[in-house]
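Researcher: Watch the backbone:
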Amino acid sequence: MTNPTELLRSRYGEIPFNYEIDWNESLETLIAHRSVRSYLSKPLPPGTLEWLVAAAQSAPSSANMQTWSVVAVEDQERKAELCRLANNQVWINQAPVFFVWLADLGRLAHIADSRGLAPVALDYVELLVKAIVDASVAAQNAIVAAESVGLGTVYIGAIRKSTQEVATLLNLPPFVFPVFGLCVGYPNPEAQPVVKPRLPQPAVFHRETYKLAEQDEAIAHYNDIMKEFYTEQKMNVAGDWSQHSAERIATLNYLKGCKDLRETLNNFGFKLL
């Protein structure tokens, strides 16, 4: 196993805390996570997708309603179209499978209809939030499972820029919304990504109450860490992490294709009351 001190230094740029916990393979898989954007054409062994879905289904689900589904896309032409719809991210084509994770309230609507019940609660935002959370938790379980057997993954949020086209391509019924995609495959050993540093824990980890002003020092320190990371990785990033992150919310450019999400969700059947 990888030395935990080495992994923590990669994740935070330093050793952020003392620990006495017993190091194990599960923790190593989680802390060593990295997004993979280059894949071998090697196919996945039979049963792999089913094991990943089993891991996903083992995640918690609000009220056990299980308001998510996933579509595994392996057909090259369909993947190519999804790649086009998601800003031509070529790793979608490279990966042997592309999962599209769905907030799925259509199944419950169908069940209610079959029992002669009107699914009036589906008009409310809370049910959609539950479904998105369910899909996200399930997908993360699948990622951990995939990485535990040597596979690489990367989330693709850009499918939300073309949700209607994605829905048509995947034959999605009403009340089923594509939340994000996920590439899964064997990482290209010649293009291995590194662990990306995250914010220091004082910026995200609060005890008892939330403290905003006290995050400033941690954020400033993170800016320094990320400047060094950008330089080491030869990444052309203008300014520091705070600057380019703030710029993303200072205009609507970052929301291109997604700023009309309410209208899009309405078209999928969600009234969002």
About this structure: The CA atoms of residues 230 and 236 lie 7 Å apart. The chain is about 45% helix and 10% strand. The chain has a mean pLDDT of 94. Residues 197-273 form one domain.
